[in-house]
Every structure is written in structure tokens, then in C-alpha cells.
Structures
1.
Amino acid sequence: MVPIPAYLTVAALLFAIGTAGVLITRNMIVLFMSIELMLNSANLALIAFSRALNIMDGHVVVFLVLTVAAAEAAVGLAMIITVFRNRESISIDRYNLLKW
Amino acid sequence: MNLDAIIFVISAVVAVFGAIMMIAQKNPVASVLYLILSFLAQAVLYIQLGAMFVGVMLVIVYAGAIMVLFLFVIMLLNLRGTEDLGEKPHPVSGIVKLLIAALLLMELIFVIRGVYTEYPNAGILAAQSDSFGSIKSIATLLFTKYLYPFELTGVLLLVAVVGAVVIARREEPGETQSEEHPEASTPIDQAVK
């Protein structure tokens, strides 16, 4: 039987990789995928705790997070398309219109 | 080492490997495919933890639908990984960013270890009932205790669909803003240029 902290460690690793991706990458789409990865690592932790406590509420929360991620992906990608039309670039350094 | 541990180690390594490769790739299409690999490995972990329904949902909704949306956008924008991403940041800046991520990882592992040693029962798996993770028990929760949030997700998805269509819509030539829009210039204007 694999102990629960092992699953939590994998979730922590994935979250840290997602954070590194958000900070390091300059490609807008890869940055967006890193955010999806972070959402999913939180899901893994929720599932692990759900199993450890033997209550199913965590599964419902994961279901809701999946819905929010789908909505976020749809709106975010639409925004990327719009900004790409104006700036002709997916580099986050070029998206500086709101920079003071 | 029993079968459970072997499956865990393999899928954990694949999940982390896919995530790292996702960041390291230059070509966004390869990035998406590595992320799908990572999600598939995570789905194995979900199912190992008894979350059958959610694991299947992860494959169908995430790997199947959301990642295809990403691929669709990448191909719509015609990205090949050779785009000019601007000046590379200073190397010190890159190291600092990696350090921040490593610090966060240390902190998370510290918290996990703290919980594990302080409450020795925390790491022990509870007895699993037969219906744990089944579609029926999730549906019962969704339609009784969590009915209100479940209804709200329907509204959220509707708003997201309408929002995505409105945001991504190209302005038609007849509309008011078309005068300033470079794409709406007439053939005569282009000939003059």
C-alpha cells in the first residue's frame, strides 16, 4: 500500500513545476498550460485526502475544479487569440499595454 | 515492492517527466502532447486512489477536450516554435525564478512531512467501501449536498461559452470600429500602399 504522503509529494512536485513554468516561460500558451498543471496538482492532493479520510466530498470539489478549468481555458484562449491579432506575437513581454 | 508501489512509481515518474518536458519544449504542439502524457499518468494515480469516475473525467475532459482546444488555437495561430519571443532575460533572473519554485517545493514537502509525523494516522489509508468513487455515490452527493454549486457550474459554463465567443469574434466590416481596424482596409487602400 502506498502511503498518502507519497501522493501529496507528487502533487507538490507538479505544483512547483507549474510555478517554475509560469515564472520562466515567455510563451503565452505554455504559461497557460502551466496554470492548468497547477490546478491539476491541487486536484491530486484533494483526491489523496479524500481517500485518506474516506469521504467523497473531495471528488465533488475536483469535479467543480475541472469545470472551472474548462471555462478558464475557453475564455483564456479566446483572449490569447484576440491579443495575438493585435500584437502578432505570443511573447508575454509584448503584452505590455497596461504597463505604466 | 508490491504491484501497487510499482504502478505508483512508474506513473509518478511519468507525470513529473511530462510536466518538466512541457516547460522545456520550444514547440508548443510538443508541449501540449507532453502535458497530455502527464495527465494520463495522473489519471492512473487518481484511479489508484479509488477515484474511478474523476480519473476517467480527467482523461475525457482534460486530455480529450481542453488539450484539443489548446492544439486548435496553436494551429489557428500557426505557431511553430520558431517565433521571436523577445530578448532573453538575464541569467540571474532565471536562476532566481528556479530558486523560488524550489523554495515553494521545499515548503510544501515540509508541510506534508510535518502533518505525517505529527499525526501518525494521517498516512494510513482508511478502509475503502465498495461504492467509494463510483458514479452513483458521486451523483448522490452532487444532487443532494452540492446541488447549488452544481447548478452554478452550469451557469458558469454558459457564461464562459458566451464570453469566449464574444471575445474571440472578429469585427465585421459594417460595424462602427471597422474604420480604424487595419484588417478592414479596402483593396484600393492596399494598392496605394
2.
Amino acid sequence: MDHPTREEWMEFIYGEAEPADRARLEGHLKTCSDCREAADRWTGAMAGLDTWQVNVPARPKRHARVVAALAVAATVLIALGFAVGRLAAPGRADVQTLRAELEPALRASLEKELTAKWDASLTAAQETLRQDVMAQVRKEMDDAQAATNTLLAEYARAFDDVRRSDLVTLARLTEQELWRTKWQVAVALANAPYSAPVATTGPPAGNEHSSQ
Amino acid sequence: MLMRAKRPEPGSGAMEGPGRRESGRTLRPTAAWRVFRLSDEEAMLRAQGGDAAAFAAIVRRWERPVQRLCARMTGDLHLAQDLTQEAFARVFAARASYRPGGRFSTFLWRIALNACCDERRRRARRREVPFVTDEKGTRAEADPTDQAPAPPALAAEQEEVDLVRAAVADLPEHYRAVVVLRHYEGLKFREVAEVLGIPEGTVKSRMAEALDRLAEALAMLRTDATRRPQ
């Protein structure tokens, strides 16, 4: 069998073979076990080579270096500012003097502010209390008025009842007295002797009015 | 599928350098790249005329690829940093010899590889510890970034990486250069040949031989690793 050369196989396995050569070599691989074995050996070695990767550290970017330089500069400036501030700061005695000067004014201001707040709170509390008392009194008065009205209504009803009862009693007594009087008149008339009326020319003086 | 997926085209003009991918991460273009849009060749011509900013842009664009190349050629990340500086110093010193017709990346890769070879020879002359040593006890010296103890879950993966690094380290230098340029840096075989100054067919045959040796070495190292008492 006419085997392809090793050079041709190298072109084939590294993808540099022309299309016609590639087709020819692929066809040969299907029929030649020796060449297939060699090709497998080479591709196995290539796969082994692929496992070794070299990771070269990247050079720091220029802008990263600029940022780092700016950060360092900022740190130095901050440190310098802090140091200058510490050195230029007044001593402890000056702080106490300043406190002594400021304390009365601060105290007066504080007292004034607290007093104003207290007065405002007191006024508000008084107003609230007055409104509460007025509301309570108004409520009590309303309740008393309602109770009085109720009592007056009850008294009026009781008075009406009593008056009605008295009138009924008076009417009954009056009727009884009227009947008794009528009876006494009737009895008196029945017991009186009969006398014929006397004819006269005129009524006697002094009895004119009563005879009518 | 045997055929390897195509890597992005490195090493020429405006498409190289900043657009490359490493470990699945896209490297973003630098500010200078976005502003000036200079190709490597244009930047190098400006550097020949004394434009320091143009040369700085080249360094920013290429220092990570060159450092990766040196790290894989030497197995030592710290030494790779020194060799990267050495390579760019050589590029600057040799800027007058750069011809505009040639690709800058070829010029740069060649200088970087020469810096690695010179370092190996210098160490051999002084009988210093070679930067590519055997797999026993070389992990801390070979790559100081791996000195931290790996979590148990990553121990097996790290051991595989160590085996691969040791296998690459055991390759002869002319094989290792082909593997690093073609496999890791993604140059075409033609470009590798241009950098190394050898015929393209020789590059391919060296690649095949290197893969054979790597497969054999990896199998042997894996066997030793399984036999080694835990």
C-alpha cells in the first residue's frame, strides 16, 4: 500500500492540508490501520501538549499605574494635612480658656431657651386644662338640665292626675249634695200643710222681688 | 476527528499579537494599538527612525508571546522574563538591520530563540543547572509559579502538566523549537521554516519526530508515575 508521507500527515493533523489532500488522507485512514495508529499516536501527543498552558502575568496597565500614583499622592497629601493640623493646633490651656469664655454665654442661652420652652409648655397645658374643665362643666349642666326637665314633666303629670281626681271627687260630692238638697226639699214640701193661695191686688212691699 | 482546528494566524501585520488567544482568553488590544493602528513593520520602521513610543508599542504587543516562547523553551518563567528583556534589547540593538520586506515576527522569533539558545550554551559552559532538567525535583525550580501546593482535585491534572513539561524538556532543542513555534505559538509550517532558516519539509519531519518522541516519553513517564509510591 502506498502510504502518505509523515510530512503530509503533519499538514493533515495541523489543518494545513489542501482540501483534495485532506480528502485523500481521510480516505486512506479508513483503510490503513498502520497510518491510523500513527495518527492516533500523534494526536494523543498533541492533546498532551495542550495540557501545558503558560500563564504569563500581564503587565500592569498604564492607567492602573496612574491611578496608583494618584492614590499614593492623595495619601501623602492627607497625611501631610493631618500632621500640619496637629502641629498647628492650639494647646490644651487654650482650649480650657476658650471653654471658660464660652461657658456663661452658652449657659445663659441654654437657660433662656429652656425657660421659653417651659413657658410655652405651661401655657399649652393650662389652655388644655381650661378647655377640658369647660367641656366637663358644660356636660354636667346639660345633664342637670335634662334631669330637671324630666322631673318637671313627672310633676306636671302628677299634678294633672291629682287635679283630675279632685275634680271628680268635687263633682261627685256636689252631685250627692244636690240630690240630698232635692230630697230635703221634696220631704219638706211633702210635710208642709196645704194653704190656698190668697188673691191680692198687688204684692206686698218688700216681698216683690223674692216672689218672682 | 484527527485534524486539528486552525489556530489564529500569528506573526504578521495588523492581525497578529493582540488578537491571539491563550488559554481560551482573548488578549485585548492595547491603547496604542487602537489609536495608531500601526502594523509591527510600520512600528519597527518608526523605531528605526528613533521613535521610542513605537518601539514601546512593539514591546507591549509582543512581550507576552515572547515570554511564553521563552518559558516553554526554558521551562522557567522567571528566566523567561529575563530572556524576554534580553530579546527586546537585542531587537532594539539590531533595529538597523531590520529590512522592511521581511516579517517583523520572523525577525523577533528568531532573536528570541537565539536568546534562549545562548542562555543554554552559557549555562552549559558554566556547568550551571540546566534550565531543562529531569523530572525529579525540578518542579519548584522549573516553574516557581507552581510552588504552591495544589488542591487534591487538581493534583492529577498538575501531574499530567508536569509530565508534559518534562517530556518537552527532554526533546532536543531543534525539535523543541519546532514544537513550541508550531504547536504552541500557532505558526504555519512555512513560517516556522522561515524563522528557523530550514526547509519546510524538514520542519514537518522534525514535528513528526518530535510528536513520536513525545508520545513515547509521555507513555514512559505515565508508567513511571503510576509505579511511583504515593
